Amino acid sequence: MIRKLPAAAAGTFTLGGDLTVNRLGFGAMRITGKGIWGPPEDHQAAIVTLRHAIELGVNFIDTADSYGPNVSEELIAEALAPYPSGLVIATKGGWERPGPGKWTHNASPGHLRKALEGSLKRLRLDRIDVYQLHTPDPAVSFEASMEALAQLREQGKIRHIALSNVTREHIERARKIVPIVSVQNRYSFADREWDYLVSYCAENGIAFIPWAPLGGGKRAAEVLESVAEKVNATPLQVALAWLLKRSQIMLPIPGTSSPKHLEENVAAAALELPQTEFERLSDVTPPPNSLR
After folding, report:
1. pLDDT in tens, 220-239
2. Residue 2 within a domain
3. Which domain holds residue 200?
4. Residue of 67, 83, 131, 187 marked active site
């Protein structure tokens, strides 16, 4: 079967039983200004990139109110609203940005309610398809944060709830309060601290959204470049192909502010990584032996 749109080449994943998305999404953090602060240097390029992502078959976009702050969500709405049928936008709350290079926790129930209302307004939506707790707040009860999100879901303002930067314990505690449809943690072929969490998500039908797909150090870069040369692809394409082959629940979200780089990234959905090369990359950093 030949798929018309490149982003569909890696297959699909269904979030929460009712939102089916292509497994290669788009991360909208990099469409903001330098340091994830303020507007982009090239506003029009950001708009064109977002629209081109849709043209390439991307139907899952990940963002957050802290990207800019607010800028990423505003650009998504400017470029894409009214949204095409089937487009799923996931955003996050729980970080605040008091200034450039500064990220501070705030997952209090009051802030999360305010953050969600702000995201709804900026994205021009009546309901957020996937709303993620950006990170647990050490100064706030995790259960209080989750209960606040569960209440917003009951009010119809959130369709599905998700987590980011969490442990298995967080996921299990959250699932006692509300269903969790995805988990977003740092993960790559060379950075596999959360390998056990990928397996946990696979066992429970939860999507895993990896960020920082390159990871690793000098040795990892050397192996990646060697494999890329062998399969006639870019290093990032190979890193993304490894993620897609690692598990069917994997939903990578490479980001860029360049339409050209976007095309290169999305092409990874069709890259068939030979098993020998997949194993070679997997051997760069063996998964931790953890029972967490």
Report:
1. 999 999 999 999 999 999 99
2. no
3. 7-213+246-257
4. 67
